[in-house]
Design brief:
The chain has helices at 3-10, 30-33, 62-65, 101-118, 148-152, 160-167, 176-196, 202-219, 227-244, and strands at 16-18, 26-27, 38-39, 46-54, 73-76, 83-94, 129-130, 138-141, 145-146. The protein is of the alpha+beta class. The protein folds into two domains: 3-157; 161-244, Endonuclease III, domain 1 (Orthogonal Bundle). The strands form two sheets. Strands 4, 5, 6, 8 and 9 form a five-stranded mixed beta sheet that branches. α4 runs antiparallel to α7 (176-196), α7 (176-196) runs antiparallel to α8 (202-219) and α7 (176-196) crosses α9. It is globular. The two termini are 37 Å apart.
Length: 252
């Protein structure tokens, strides 16, 4: 499948979209969202596209000058040359699933390594990107899809401690924030589950983890995650630990 049909197929059913990100955004049916200049490329639960903001006059081709991998799509503003560079993942990665926290950490490290390589804006979260099908932009396809291993070959992967520092940086908005929230919640959750291990105790356990997640999102992450992601991460960790806490399994 070529990149543009793949982009459309992987969109959320009701993406956020806008014609001016500074003036706000709204949720619309996919067919309507595709008429807007900016839209949400990934579903809330998984990452199918890595998006980077290249605010250079040669944004659409800066990857070549910087010895970075060619993007799947380069969506360029013809007025100033700035572009969003989109990399399609061969296997989408869940971003709120405790059972898949390790692939997410790998993806977050590859994302940060690639952002540095591309000299991309660290404050760009990729929540909205330039719509590659919109007539306002010039869109070019340079490559196909990438596995995480293929992307990692192009960059120097930051260490876990570096990713934690990134999450504390007010100018950073990458996936490392999700990983930090998983790590901050995981250890206290294993301790707390003992207090709620009783019939009908799961809901109370979920509520206390949600409260911890909200607090960690406000204090451990300088650019907080959306409320929906925090809620999903807390619920996923609760399910993961509840199922394993007394079976002898641990998330190692």
């Amino acid at each position: 499948m070529s990149a543009l049909p793949a982009f459309v197929e992987s969109l959320p059913r009701r993406p956020y979209c806008t014609d001016n990100p500074r003036l706000g955004q709204s949720v619309r049916e996919r067919s309507v969202a595709l008429r807007h200049s900016h839209l949400q490329p990934n579903t809330p639960g998984k990452v199918s596209w890595l998006a980077f903001d290249a605010d250079q006059p040669d944004g659409a081709t800066a990857w070549d000058r910087l010895h970075a991998p060619p993007p799947t799509l380069a969506v360029e503003n013809p007025t100033n040359g700035h572009a969003h560079l989109l990399y399609r993942l061969a296997a989408p990665v869940p971003r709120t699933d405790a059972a898949r926290a390790r692939p997410l950490l790998y993806l977050a490290a590859a994302q940060e390594g690639l952002r540095r390589k591309l000299e991309g804006d660290p404050g760009y979260s990729g929540h909205l990107c330039k719509n590659p099908l919109h007539p306002r932009w010039n869109t070019r396809q340079w490559a196909g899809e990438y596995s995480l291993a293929e992307l990692a070959e192009w960059v120097e992967l930051p260490r876990i401690a570096e990713m934690r520092r990134c999450a504390l940086d007010p100018d950073y908005a990458g996936l490392g924030r999700n990983c930090t929230l998983f790590e901050v919640l995981r250890q206290p959750a294993y301790r707390l589950v003992r207090a709620y291990w009783r019939p009908n105790g799961f809901e109370a356990f979920c509520q206390v983890l949600r409260s911890l997640a909200d607090g960690a999102n406000a204090t451990e992450i300088s650019t907080p995650l959306p409320t929906s992601e925090v809620k999903s991460i807390a619920a996923s960790i609760a399910r993961w630990i509840w199922q394993r806490a007394y079976s002898g399994e641990r998330d190692r």
